[in-house]
Structure formats: structure tokens, C-alpha cells
């Protein structure tokens, strides 16, 4: 029996199976410092214990996307080590803030499989849930990936395609317990714009650009214990190392501070596409479009639904898709998410 | 109304205005670890809780320059986003050590404005103060920058040039409460030299050199939430990314350990010039000159005033200015500061 | 008297001398986060407080090699600043886990000197011991280095070559107090293989590769306060910066998770050779060979003795030595160590 993990192939997944992912992880202020060194992250709720206290929490949690990457990273050895492509996300909900000292684990339930007509690959859908050491769920999302078959002669499984929501309903968003934006300090947060200042359809160019270095995306990806070799081994792939798509998500989200400083807390992940590969040397810019706004029952707190697009600096501002409906070559990320914002 | 911050222009500043800078920041052991990974920082007071306890504190504070960069970084979106040049520092005093768990905020008072004769730019002086979550001031310094006018037709303001001290008087330096060097452990600190071993006029070549990488200066600059795009976007400026001047300050200060290991604690910032731009690939060396020595009222504690110069490795040792009084091209930093040292 | 440290030369060491190394260091969660960002470290005992609790400890300690690098780094200014080569390690024993908040100091006793026949260099053997702020020893190992003479006319000292064990006897390994693997969670640890699944002579190719960047090895080496200039100054050496051998050790150990996830805790360091220099741009792979297995008195805990080899990606798998008994050019590290593993 080989001692090393070759990863799973398409025929190794069956609908209903629950995979407990390995290596739980305790997070500290170290991960926060690294995150804020890797990305220009400035949302005040995650930067200042005092700001978080003014919002009703006992301290600043770790950034929402630290939770996402930590949960996601654990799934890689079981879900995407042999993935050809990361196809999409859906039904993502942030269920509880993650704090320093929390130990995070991940598990995934296989909720769909569909062999491709070429007989060599298939699509696997999993619902991944992250939980803390108290057994409380902190995050849940669906992801689907295209995976190679290990044995092309393995029989095709019965096709099961899950019925996924196009977006998370505003009424299903979970506001962190005790959160209130009634005493929200706009000066400390960095911008005066509240939910009522944003209009559906409004687009915001976040102005700033960041050129990515190899060392940075590898530091980030390793911190989440994501082991996919294409991110680390320059000899593994023509064109060199492929940057972890989550690195681009975090970079774009951080850049979006400039114009969306008050979209404080990500609570929903509706969909996401890594439109084109990203490599070191690329300079990344970001823009957002307001897709929807909603109320919540929590004091002073509304929700804003945003499209967040990361693109290369040399692409036209507000690049997205061509006339053929395909993403333009300069577009890297098209993410659809919900964030909490003062009303 | 645009949602993004275009930064302030010269005509947007008026003497007497106080700007509360956004995004307070809670610091942890993570920032200390990052700082010690980014710079060869070894001053024992900031490296060891036990050493700091032997000096009368309850634990090691965060490095003095972590406080400086954190306070400085917050000012960038309001003060220097449209700055043409960072012209100088004066009257800097470190008022209280910053500890893990402290939340740091910054505010700046405009204390001077002077339009340049070209009518297109002007100089703005601000006194910036950093404070912790208890409302205690931790650092105060004056900085002046040259800023573009947004509207060249805006009327020139009444010129106000603040009267700034050439250096902080030794009697105005603040020794951290409870600090004593009477039980100072020279072996642990790394060098045997005490204040009486240094002579005014003495120059020290700190020997070691460090070649800077893009990833490093960006990690550092982002950690301080400094958003000036020239540091991050390789497409923003001919010649590529410009390294944050504070990165050179920290690098040179850390290199100065070799010869000044007992200049433990920076307490005053008299003046500073970023003499030439610095970019990735440059190899930095440092030298110091003893400018003054002074007593303090605290047990066993003296103060040493130092010129700290960072230069490129290929420049002549002890490079500074040419016969024309201008900085030589290989000189990057000329900093004048006070540090506490055992007598 | 020069203020800077020129380092010691061969004639400056005498057998029996004990050198207390400078700058003790307090470690926090920041160092752990950085370590896990710099290396693909995933051993569960060091990743999860909960996993460590299930093994009988009150929390996850810092990674074993964080202890090693911290202790080692302090010795550099006194032992290897003028070293021509790092020749070997022996009799390394990890004596006590290092936890967040511990302050680590190092001291070295000179246990051997031997001038080389060329009269210009000599070999110095030291036994280095790291201890925490409670005065408890956490690590002890022997290292020998070749050091230049400062004065070639200095008389040769009496040759003393210490009698060193070829490997640490299994009975001398120290199991952390309270450790038990009786409730060991293999699913969380990431692999099902227990000690009885490994056979002496078995070789494991750890599959994954990592391409090293300059910024990464410098961040790592600085974090341990290792000041040897060849690691930082691109102008100091033909061929550019030489990567700290310990960086390769940590990288290879982390890569060995894939196949040795349950070799949880390094407890012994039998020998080690940095076979060839390593530089940025090299892609590193690793393989292991099982050298021995042993029992311990602790519940459910065995010991596995492993050869860990780091090699360049382009070298043949399982590269080691040529017919001439010399390391092949693609081999970087040959390390012999003991780790604890569930029986």
C-alpha cells in the first residue's frame, strides 16, 4: 500500500458520502497579521477590537475570508488534488465569526456526480461545512469541480445534479449574534456611505492595483494548508505556478475597501468563477457592481449583494464578458456575495 | 458622489483642522513575528519578555517602529495619497510603549501650509498623534509633504510655516514608566558597550547588507495599512514600485544592532530625509554617527542621539553628501533620532 | 575598540568554554503562523490545540523545528559567522515542547577543536543547549563547523575530537510529559499508517515539490535571528544568496507529511549533512527511508528513525550518493532523525 496520498479520482466519489477532512487548525493573531500583510485588508470590524466592541462583539473576529480559506484548504487533498478545474460555488453562508483560539475543521458531503461525455472526467458537487472546536458550524458552501477518472473503464455513476439556488435569499443570511450597527462609527470605518447611498446597478472602480509576487501567493496558499502542487512547483505546469483562486478573491475583496469600506462583513457567497488563470507578475485591479440590497432584523444592519470582479490592470475598466458571453481574457474573478452594511 | 477616496489636494487643508484617520488597528504577537521576519531586528527589549521584565516592564512591548509605522500608515489616505514628496519629520516623541492587544488610532492636526511659487503644489505640515484604546498618546511627530493642487486656480492660502525644533531636547524625551537599566544584562543584549563607551562624532559601519525583494517591502507596507499605490502597482510609475521609506528606516535600524545593540529604545525622532528612491534588488547597508549623549532621570538610563544613514552597498562606506551639499546618489536615508542606552 | 562583532575565529575557541548566546526570544502564535506560511507544515499535533489535547497536552506546542531554528539562530553570531562550512550535527535531543509565550535562550559549550593541516582553518565542535524562561532545557545538540583562523600564526591548539554517538539511542529519546497516542485520531492526522505499517528499508517518495523564492528563505532565516550575511546580501558571494540549510530542513520535513503524516513529533537528531548549496529558483522535492523503529514506555507511542533527503526536482527520484560515495549534485540535505509515531 502506497504511503502517499494520490488524491481521489472521479469514480471514488459517491453521492451521500461524508468526508471528514484532515488536520484541524487553531488560529491566532498570527494568521490575522499575515492576512493583513498579504492583502490590503482594512475593514474596521476585522482590524480593531474596539470597533468590533462598538458593534456588539467582545473582540474583532478573524477576517471572514480567513475562515473561508481555512475551511477550503482542508478540502483540497480530498476534493481537488486531481481536479482539472474549479467550476463554481453556491449557497455559501457564513454562520458564525471565527475568533483567535478557535480550532477549525472541515467536512464535505458529496451531493452530486456527473460523468462527462468524454468518459475521462466528471463533475463532483460537494457541500463543505467548517466548524469550530465547540462543534458549531462557522461556514457552509457548495463547490463543484471537474475531476479526472483514475480508471477510464470505471462505470459511469448515476447522474445526480443538485438543485442549487442562484443566490442565497436575504432571509437566509445569518447576522452574527449580538451584532448591531446602531453605534457604527463611519469615521473610523473610513467612508461615509451607508446602504441607502448605494443603488442597484451602480458600478464602482476600486482604483488601486497590486502586482503579485510568487512569494506572496505561496505564503498565503500554504497558510491555509492548501497543498495543490500547481501553486508551488514551477516545474509542474507549462507557464509556471498557477495562483490559488482564493488569493485573487482576497486581494480583490481587500481592494474593494476603496468604495465599499462599509461592506464590513461577508455573510453570503452566491456564486463565483475563476474566469482566467492568474500568475505572478500580473497587476490586479478590481471593480464592483451593486446587485441587490436587503434589510435584516438586526439593529441598523442591512445587506448588500455585490458582484466583485478582479481583472488585470491592462484590461479595460469594468471588463467582464465579450459579445460571445465568455469572460474577456483580462478577467480573473467574477464573485457574487452578500455583505452586511449599516443602513 | 464618487464612492472612492481620491485623496486630498493642497487646497483641501487648512491650518487648525484636525483629521481623525480611519481604521484603528489591534496589534498582536503576529505583527511582532512579521516584523522580526521582515527585518533583522534583535534589540533584546523587544525580543524577550524576560529581558523587558528585568528592565521593569511586565512584558516586551512591540518594537518602537511598529508603533511608528502603524500610526503613520493610517495617515496616508488623508495626508499623502497625492503627495509628490515626503519632505521631512520633526519633533517626534515616543510617549508610551505599545503592547500586544493595544488598538492604535491616529489623528493629525494641520499646522502649516505654504503654496509653492509654481502655483501647482504646496507644502502641508501636520502634527500626527497616535493613541491607544485607553486614549493614551503613544507617539507624536510632525511631518511635512509636498502635495499637488487639485484645482490650480484655487486661491493660495495664507502661508503658515510652523516653528519647529531642530531636535527634541533631551529633557523632553519620555522614558517608559517603570523602566530601569540598573539590572541591564549586557550579555543577553548582545554587546558590552554602554553610553560612556560612545564618543560624539564617532562613526560606526554596521557591516551587514540586505538585498530587498518586492514581496518583502509590500508585505511590510501592507501590514501598516499604508495604501499609497506607488508601493504596490508596478504599472503606476516608471521604474517600477517605489519602496516605502519606512521600510528602509526599519531595515537600517535593525542593521544598526551590530554596533548599537544597546541603543535599545527609540524615544525621539529629530529629523529624517528619504534622500533617494529605493527599489527591489537594491542591497542596503547602514552606518551611524553619534551626534550627542545625554542623561535622564531614570535609573541607569542615558540617551544617545544618532544619525542613521542607509546607503546602497555599492556606494562608498560612510556616504552622505557631496561637495554641493546634496545627498550622494547612493544614499537612501538620513535619520536623526534619540535612543535610550544604559549609562 | 570596534563596536561591531567581527565574529570569532578558530583560535578564539577553547575546549570547555561555555558561550551564553545573546538576545533571548519570546515566541507567540505569530511565529507559528509564519512557519505554516513558509512551509507546507501540516502535522496535526502542531496545527490543532484540540488534537494536542487528545494527545494529553494542554495545547499545541510550536513546531519542533521552530524550537530548533530559534536555538540555532542565536548561536550564529558566536559560532558560525566566520564559518567556511557547517559540517555536521549529532546527539540532538528534543527535551521539552516549546509553547507560545516561552522565552528561549541558547548556550554552547566548546567540546572539540582541531586545526586543519593547511594551518588556515580548523574544526570547532560545540554542544548547544536551548532553554526556556523557567530554566528548563528544551533542546540539545552537537554541531561542528569549519572556521577560519583570524591570525594564521596563532599556535594550533591541542586537538580534542569529541566521541560522538552515531545516533541517539532509542532509550535516550524524551517523550513529552503526559503524551499519549492511545486516543490518536488518524482521520484528523491525515493518514492511516501506524508504526507497524512501516518496514525498515522502506523508501517513500513524498511526491510534491516547492520552488523557493528569495523573499521566503530570507523571511524564515531572519525570523530565527540568524545573521549570517551570505543568506541576505546578494553581493556577498558569487552565485548570489545561499539559502540557510535549516530552511531546506523545514521544507523537506513539511513535504514529508505526504507519507509520514503520523511521524508527528521530532525527538532526536542523529546526523545531518547539507550536501550541496541551495538557491532561490531551485525546486525541492523530498524522500525518506525508514532506518529503524523502536518502542517507548509511553502509552501507544513508538519511535521511527528516518533518513530525510531533500533533492532538486530535476534529479533522479531517490537520489543520494554516487559510486564514489559522494553526494550527487542534486542532493541538498541528508538528515537522520527520530520521530514519535502511534504504534
UniProtKB/TrEMBL annotation, chains A, B, C:
GO MF annotation list: lyase activity
Protein's name according to its UniProt entry: L-erythro-3-methylmalyl-CoA dehydratase
Pfam family, one: MC_hydratase
Top-level taxon of the source organism: Bacteria
Lineage: Bacteria, Pseudomonadati, Pseudomonadota, Alphaproteobacteria, Rhodobacterales
InterPro entries linked to this entry: HotDog_dom_sf (IPR029069), MC_hydratase (IPR048274), MCH/BMMD (IPR052342), Thiol_ester_hydratase_Rv0216 (IPR016790)
CDD domains from the UniProt entry: FkbR2
Amino acid at each position: 500500500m502506497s504511503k502517499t496520498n494520490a488524491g481521489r479520482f472521479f469514480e471514488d466519489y459517491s453521492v451521500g458520502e461524508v468526508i471528514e477532512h484532515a488536520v484541524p487548525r487553531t488560529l491566532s493573531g498570527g494568521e490575522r497579521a499575515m492576512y493583513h500583510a498579504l492583502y490590503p485588508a482594512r475593514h474596521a470590524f476585522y482590524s480593531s477590537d474596539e470597533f468590533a466592541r462598538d458593534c456588539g462583539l467582545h473582540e474583532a473576529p478573524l477576517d471572514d475570508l480567513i475562515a473561508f480559506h481555512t475551511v477550503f484548504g482542508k478540502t483540497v487533498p480530498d476534493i481537488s488534488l486531481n481536479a482539472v478545474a474549479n467550476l463554481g460555488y453556491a449557497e455559501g453562508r457564513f454562520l458564525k465569526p471565527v475568533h483567535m483560539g478557535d480550532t477549525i475543521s472541515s467536512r464535505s458531503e458529496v451531493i452530486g456526480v456527473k460523468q462527462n461525455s468524454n468518459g475521462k472526467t466528471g463533475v463532483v458537487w460537494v457541500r463543505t461545512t467548517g466548524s469550530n472546536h465547540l462543534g458549531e458550524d462557522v461556514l457552509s458552501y457548495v463547490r463543484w469541480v471537474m475531476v479526472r477518472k483514475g480508471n477510464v473503464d470505471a462505470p459511469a455513476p448515476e447522474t445526480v445534479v443538485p438543485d442549487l439556488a442562484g443566490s442565497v435569499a436575504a432571509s437566509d443570511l445569518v447576522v452574527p449574534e449580538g451584532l448591531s450597527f446602531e453605534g457604527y462609527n463611519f469615521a473610523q470605518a473610513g467612508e461615509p456611505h451607508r446602504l441607502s447611498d448605494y443603488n442597484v446597478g451602480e458600478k464602482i472602480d476600486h482604483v488601486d492595483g497590486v502586482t503579485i509576487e510568487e512569494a506572496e501567493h505561496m505564503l498565503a496558499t500554504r497558510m491555509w494548508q492548501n497543498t495543490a502542487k500547481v501553486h508551488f512547483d514551477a516545474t509542474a505546469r507549462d507557464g509556471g505556478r498557477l495562483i490559488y483562486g482564493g488569493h485573487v478573491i482576497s486581494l480583490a475583496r481587500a481592494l474593494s475597501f476603496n468604495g465599499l469600506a462599509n461592506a464590513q462583513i461577508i455573510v453570503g457567497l452566491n456564486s463565483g468563477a475563476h474566469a482566467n488563470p492568474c500568475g505572478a507578475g500580473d497587476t490586479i485591479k478590481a471593480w464592483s457592481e451593486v446587485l441587490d440590497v436587503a434589510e435584516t432584523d438586526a439593529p441598523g444592519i442591512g445587506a448588500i449583494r455585490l458582484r466583485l470582479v478582479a481583472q488585470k490592470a491592462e484590461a479595460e475598466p469594468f471588463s467582464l464578458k465579450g459579445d460571445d458571453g465568455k469572460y474577456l481574457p483580462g478577467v480573473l474573478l467574477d464573485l457574487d456575495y452578500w455583505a452586511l452594511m449599516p443602513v
